[in-house]
Amino acid sequence: MMPQSLPLNGPELRDIHLPPAPSWWPLAPGWWAMMVLVLLALIVAAWFLLHRHRQHKRQRLLLGELEELAARHARVGDDAALAAALHQLLRRVARSHDEAATRQRGDSWRRTLARVPVAIPVLDRLMALEQAIYRPQAKLDAPATLAAARSWLRAAASPRAWKPLAVEQGHV
């Protein structure tokens, strides 16, 4: 038997078939990791913005209450009532960071106020409130006292502004 002869140009070949294009789904592991990171970044950003919004809202409420007290004092002119209302507002804010703030007097109250970083004259002005609330005819520099309270409340509205209790107790 004679072998079958091959064509002169070689065997007859079929056309080359390319594989199908890669599918976009399922995604490669790198894309999944990137989506997880983006999702985490969005969650952190949303939490940060919400926290910041709440902090600004609290500051606006406190300063709004302070402005109401200033307006009432401008109408009535009672320094003792202004001193009592300001003192109560400061104690209420301080109580949210230190439960003992409602019972403190003198130096311990000053240390609580000093946990918020404000200037010494601001602290001195706020400490004068404690004396003024017990005097029947209290004389108060209302604009300076309101400015000191405004400064302290702006700083105190941020929970991160407060120095930790342990640091303060270590200096006592």
Automatic annotation (TrEMBL):
Membrane-spanning parts: 30-50
Source domain of life: Bacteria
Keywords recorded for this protein, A-Z: Membrane, Transmembrane, Transmembrane helix
Pfam family, one: DUF4381
Name of the protein described by the UniProt record: DUF4381 domain-containing protein
Source organism of the structure: Rhodanobacter hydrolyticus
